[in-house]
Amino acid sequence: MRPVRLERTTCGLGNRRSILLSYGRESPNDCSIILDHWKARIAVRWPIMTQEPSVVNRWSALLADFLPGYFAQTPALSALDGQCAIVLHGSTTLGVDDAVSDLDLWVLVPDAALQAAESIAGTRFFSFELAGKKGHLNLEAAGDALAQVDRCDLERIAELRRCRVLADGCGLACEVVSRANQPMAEAVRRTWFRYHYVEMRGFHRSCDGPIERGDALALLQALVPTLNHALRAALVLDSQPYPYIKWLGHAAAQTPTGRLIIPLVDNIVKLLAQDALHHPGPEAGHPLGAKLREIRRVLIDSARVGGIDEPWLERWWVYMTQAAKGISSVTW
Question: Can you give the pTM of this predicted structure?
Answer without folding.
Answer: 0.83
